[in-house]
Specification:
Helix content is 56%, strand content 14%. The chain is of the alpha/beta class. The strands form two sheets. It has a seven-stranded parallel sheet, with helices on both faces. It has a two-stranded parallel sheet with strand order 5-8. Strand 2 (32-37), helix 2 and strand 3 (56-61) form a beta-alpha-beta unit. It starts with 7 loop residues before the first strand and ends with a helix.
Length: 279
């Protein structure tokens, strides 16, 4: 529901990128933030920037794939702030490749972070928000969870599951005064491409994604602002980019047609970019 003035927030994956920008956007509201990430040094730098921007922050190392460490975030928020108004499940990683060629250990790795990390966050915080009768959960999913592009199986699966979890929680928590938003951006500049695991050595997928990320009119700071505005309006879906919104509409209009058209559309887009690079 509406984010209160000076909200008490917990943000995962906050050492850089979108997580950091979400913290900085909250800092402008005078927020009190638990800034968490496996990268403690990065989390500490984000906390410093939050204080500089007018908020207060506690940096803590957290591996969201470990339930006990996520539980510690909730306990720390209660100790430091007396509770939580906004949980942002942002931590995520990327695995690309084709099904059957990606090692199962990579599926387990991404599932533990992208999916179980969000499940743990919701499992730990939802009862607390329900008990206080207020609050909001922002789950950072992806347009990949709505569109399921080829070569992104593990990422698609985890993000689609995060959207399904968000939809489920919306039905369970709304009557208790707790809102839920699933954020589904397309491409923007972030560390996820550099830190991801690729199993498509002969593919231009990563190059195409990097180029589209650089060319995007919306970057992390814009997406953070849009995401928080969606939480304020208690919107279930936040799809910031127009390409994501139009593709999602087309898929809902004609699901089979969408997946029949997708390979040709991707080939056409790649050919155009290749031609533009040559010229």
């Amino acid at each position: 529901m509406p984010i209160p003035a000076s909200p008490r927030a917990v943000v995962t994956g906050a050492a850089a990128g979108l997580g950091r920008e979400l913290c900085l956007a909250l800092a402008k509201r005078g927020a009190k933030i638990i800034v968490s990430d496996r990268d403690l040094a990065g989390a500490q730098e984000t906390a410093r920037l939050v204080r500089q921007a007018g908020g207060s922050a506690h940096a803590v190392a957290c591996d969201v794939s470990k339930r006990e460490e996520v539980e510690q975030l909730a306990c720390l928020a209660e100790q430091c702030f007396g509770g939580t108004d906004l949980l942002i499940n942002n931590a995520g990683v990327l695995v690309s490749g084709t099904v059957g060629e990606i090692p199962l250990r990579e599926w387990e790795w991404i599932m533990n972070i992208n999916l179980w990390g969000v499940i743990y966050g919701c499992h730990v915080f939802a009862p607390r928000l329900q008990a206080q009768g207020s609050g909001h959960i922002l789950n950072v999913a992806s347009a990949a969870g709505l569109l399921c592009l080829p070569g992104m199986g593990p990422y698609n699966v985890t993000k689609a599951a995060v959207i399904a979890l968000s939809e489920t929680l919306r039905g369970e928590l709304q009557r208790h005064g707790v809102g839920v938003t699933a954020l589904c951006p397309t491409f923007f500049q972030t560390n996820i491409l550099r830190s991801g695991h690729s199993h498509m050595p002969d593919s231009n997928l990563e190059l195409e994604a990097a180029q589209r990320s650089q060319q995007s009119k919306l970057q992390a700071a814009d997406i953070a602002r849009i995401a928080l505005a969606a939480c304020e309006r208690n919107e279930l879906y936040a799809v910031p980019m127009s390409d994501g919104r139009w593709s999602w509409r087309l898929k809902r209009l004609t699901p089979e047609g969408f997946f029949n058209l997708m390979p040709r559309a991707l080939q056409y887009a790649q050919a155009r970019r290749k031609k533009s690079r040559v010229s």
